[in-house]
Structure formats: structure tokens, C-alpha cells
Design goal:
The structure holds 2 protein chains of 2 kinds. Chain A has no helices and 11 strands. Chain A is mainly beta. In chain B, strands 2, 5, 6, 10, 11 and 12 form a 6-stranded mixed β-sheet that branches. Chain B has a 4-stranded antiparallel β-sheet with strand order 3-9-8-7, with no helix packed on it. The chains are: A mainly beta, B mainly beta.
């Protein structure tokens, strides 16, 4: 039981390049989330998926797209990377239909855009 | 809309001293409240959570938190801090349904000998 996994762990991009961050969970959770973490800003929600087939914007969606590929996988795409997207990205999942609601986090992807 | 305030950006305590990290929330009904810890270079780990019932909740690693509705607070405490507790701590609030948690900006804890 790996929980939430993210790939890659580290990535360096040049401005204008594109990439996809992958996230998978093996807990059969319905909901999945993408956050970015920046110094002094805490965690900010980029996009989330309440259930398979649905996605919604969070606080900072500009410059990103997401795909809920199936119940297990939720990817985050940067179409044209900008230095302002240098950050640590966390994926999380939760079973929002139970009495739990806590989110389980992956180890993060550290992205640098030069 | 929900919001969470962690008034202290950085706290330094001596090893063996007690600790209290503050968290204030804004939410109309009874919220679901959480504390997470993030060690350097790691993801976030759940320390404890409150949904209902006893307002003093126990978590992992010897942490506890008390829900005070009158003060809209959910402060995290530990009676004796260990050097390994040095980390970033996040308070979060949620509500029933498929809505994301709202996180505070975090409090960084440093532990000195």
C-alpha cells in the first residue's frame, strides 16, 4: 500500500517548456487535489477532482490544466512553464464521502523553471 | 467562506519545553479541523483531527489539540518538545461533502538545545 505517489520528484524546466506531473493513489479515494507550496504562502489549491470525471478550479488555476484519468490517477499539466511556477507541488487524496475527510499527501515534486 | 489563520510564522522552543501553536478559523457551522506536520523535504502527515464530541483530541507523537468554539480556535499543544519535532505545522478546516480543506499558512517550529 503505497498511498499517494508522485512523479517526478525533481524537475528543471526552461521557460516555455511543458510537462506533466503525475499522481496516483491506491486507497480507492474519490477525491484528489493538486496544491502548490511557496515560502510564506502555505498550501494553495490549484485544482481538485471531487470524483472521477469531474474537475474544479481552486485558488490558483491559471497556467495549469488537469486530467482525472481514472479513479487512481490525477495529472497536472503545465503547458508553457513560467518562472512564477517554480514551486513544490503536492498531490493529495481523500475519501470525502466518509466521516474522515482528511487528506493524504504525496511526497511532492520540486519544480524549478529557469 | 472558510479561512484559517495561524498567527505565528516561526516559533523557537527549547527541547523539553512545552509548546502551543495557535490556529483560528472562520466557519459558520461546526467545522472539521485538522493539524498536519511537514518535516523538511517531506509531504504532509496528519497529526490529529476533530469532527465532533470531546473537544480535546489526542494525536500522534504526543500532540493534542483543543477545540474552543467560543474562541474559534483549535490550538495544538505538546507538553515536552523533542528535537525531532522541528518542522512546519499546518492547521486546516473542512466541511462535510466533496470540498477541499482550507489550510493556514503554517508555523515553522525550531527546537534548540
Amino acid at each position: 500500500n503505497a498511498g499517494v505517489t508522485q512523479t517526478p520528484k525533481f524537475q528543471v524546466l526552461k521557460t516555455g517548456q511543458s510537462m506533466t506531473l503525475q499522481c496516483a493513489q491506491d486507497m480507492n479515494h474519490n477525491s484528489m487535489y493538486w496544491y502548490r507550496q511557496d515560502p510564506g504562502m502555505g498550501l494553495r489549491l490549484i485544482y481538485y477532482s471531487a470524483s472521477e470525471g469531474t474537475t474544479d478550479k481552486g485558488e490558483v488555476p491559471n497556467g495549469y490544466n488537469v486530467s482525472r484519468l481514472n479513479k487512481r490517477e490525477f495529472s497536472l499539466r503545465l503547458e508553457s512553464a513560467a518562472p512564477s511556477q517554480t514551486s513544490v507541488y503536492f498531490c493529495a487524496s481523500s475519501e470525502a464521502r466518509s466521516s474522515s475527510y482528511e487528506q493524504y499527501f504525496g511526497p511532492g515534486t520540486r519544480l524549478t523553471v529557469t | 467562506a472558510q479561512s484559517v489563520t495561524q498567527p505565528d510564522i516561526h516559533i523557537t522552543v527549547s527541547e523539553g519545553a512545552s509548546l502551543e501553536l495557535r490556529c483560528n478559523y472562520s466557519y459558520g457551522a461546526t467545522p472539521y479541523l485538522f493539524w498536519y506536520v511537514q518535516s523538511p523535504g517531506q509531504g504532509l502527515q496528519l497529526l490529529l483531527k476533530y469532527f465532533s464530541g470531546d473537544t480535546l483530541v489526542q494525536g500522534i507523537k504526543g500532540f493534542e489539540a483543543e477545540f474552543k468554539r467560543s474562541q474559534s480556535s483549535f490550538n495544538l499543544r505538546k507538553p515536552s518538545v523533542h528535537w525531532s519535532d522541528a518542522a512546519e505545522y499546518y492547521c486546516a478546516v473542512g466541511e462535510p461533502g466533496n470540498t477541499p480543506l482550507v489550510f493556514g499558512k503554517g508555523t515553522r517550529l525550531s527546537v534548540i538545545a
